[in-house]
Design a protein that fits this description.
This is Kynurenine formamidase. This protein has a single domain (about 5-290), classed as Rossmann fold (3-Layer(aba) Sandwich). Strand 1 (about 45-55) and strand 2 (about 60-65) form a beta hairpin. The chain has about 290 residues and is of the alpha/beta class. The protein contains ten helices and eight strands.
């Protein structure tokens, strides 16, 4: 790979450089401010259980936000944060909770060990175990709905592709829907970019953890799961391409999947606008979970 090719690849996979609202540094700062402020507000206003352990690793923790008079069959929105597998945490991931709990939905923010502490393999294992744990903890729920953003979109897609026989008691969780927002479904282009510096993925690691190579497992595990693939109008072209190609893969295998471009959004507010009850994606999520 030439220096020019590497520079172009890094530009394509630098979502902050494509925002129509702010420059690269400011758009990241704005995103962190919004998700932190809205999470703090949710923690102050809602009934929540924080730092619930789902396993034995230090990072095996999740936060649960419950609606008032929470029903035992409440659907569960499982949020897996982004941050290129190296930033953010569950402590900034409750920003969706106020509008969703108001609709009767339970919200769970999943923590995992970001790089360099966690490898891609570790993170994938953690989110799989978290989903399995929730399935056991809330057996009367009307269903689990996975939502992942950016790196979390990748992890959410890997959850759908799980070999559940190797996770906890081997039972397949009842995942009824997935909202994959500005995700990365093929990790191989990232191996030679700055994104991989803390991850230290080999080509083999990237292939083993690329959901696009395991889409048949989604159909096998969760044939009735509805998948919504979402990206922002001002996401980088590579995020558009990866989202569309993953959608077509699942569609070709007979999955019920749709792909939506949200107008006037970039890689960051396409997800953090879920803090707003009248936002297009918020309404789509609630409609799907309560239908």
């Amino acid at each position: 790979m030439t220096a020019i090719e590497k520079e172009d690849l890094e530009y394509q996979y630098s979502p902050s450089r494509w925002s129509h609202r702010f420059d690269a540094e400011a758009v990241v700062q704005d995103h962190v401010r919004v998700v932190q402020t809205e999470t703090d507000k949710a923690r102050a206003q809602l009934q929540c259980e924080l730092d619930v352990p789902y396993g034995d690793r230090e990072g095996d923790k999740l936060d649960i936000y419950k609606p008032d008079n929470c029903r035992s069959d409440a659907p569960i929105f499982v949020y897996i944060h982004g941050g290129y597998w190296q930033f953010l945490s569950k402590d900034q991931s409750g920003f969706t909770a106020i509008p969703l709990t108001a609709a009767g939905v339970m919200v769970v923010a999943v923590g995992y060990d970001i790089a360099p502490k966690g490898t891609i393999d570790v993170m994938v294992d953690q989110v799989r175990r978290a989903v399995s744990f929730l399935s056991e903890k809330f057996p009367s729920s009307s269903g689990l709905y996975i939502c992942g953003h950016s790196a979390g979109g990748h992890l959410g897609a890997m959850v759908l592709s799980s070999d559940w026989s190797k996770v906890r008691d081997g039972r397949v969780p009842a995942i009824k829907g997935a909202f994959l927002v500005s995700g990365v479904f093929d990790l191989t282009p990232l191996v030679k970019t700055y994104v991989n510096e803390p991850l230290k993925m080999t080509e083999e690691d990237a292939r083993r953890n690329s959901p696009c190579l395991f889409s048949a497992a989604v159909v096998k595990n969760h044939p009735k799961c509805k998948v919504l693939v979402v990206f922002g109008e001002h996401d980088a072209p590579e995020f558009h391409r990866q989202s569309k190609e993953y959608t077509e893969q699942l569609k070709g295998l007979g999955m019920e999947v749709s792909c939506v471009e949200i107008p006037d959004t970039d890689h960051f507010n396409v997800v953090h606008n879920l803090a707003e009850e009248h936002y297009q994606l918020t309404k789509m999520v609630i409609e799907e979970m309560l239908s």
